[in-house]
Amino acid sequence: MPIEIKIPAVGESITEVQINEWLKSEGDVVKQDEALAVIDSEKATLDLPAPNAGKLTKILHQAGETVAVGTVVAHMEAEGEAGKSEAAPKPEAKVEAKPAAKVYPPSDLTPQLVKRVHQLYEELGREEVRAVQELEQAEQEMHKDKPQK
Q1: 2, 84 in Cβ contact below 8 A?
Q2: pTM of the model
Q3: For the chain, how many structural domains are there in total?
Q4: What are the pLDDT digits (tens) for 65-115?
């Protein structure tokens, strides 16, 4: 049975991506997690990995097309499944592509979680400013002790 290759969720506010280029062609044999395509969102460029080892059988959307998150963009046959009859379907008929990173769907984002993430970003920003100030101060002290030529 064909495995559907879907566009994974790539960020909390991202609803669509552009297929930048297909790295594999129909008929190519691929390993699990091997990059099939490169996709672009407004915030990042990511690889679309193969969910299983097998053969890429059909590309449904071409490079340059913009598609919604969750759209089936290709089909593949799992390794060892190509050429088998439909009489013995594999229990796992649908497998989604794995996202490149842990992504929480918008329904999991509570206002408290969003607020905490913003607090952490602010803290990181303050830490970065402090680190730069300390480096500048250390550099000034280093040059202050150096004799002038």
Answers
A1: no
A2: 0.53
A3: 2
A4: 999 989 999 999 988 765 444 444 445 555 555 555 555 555 556 677 767
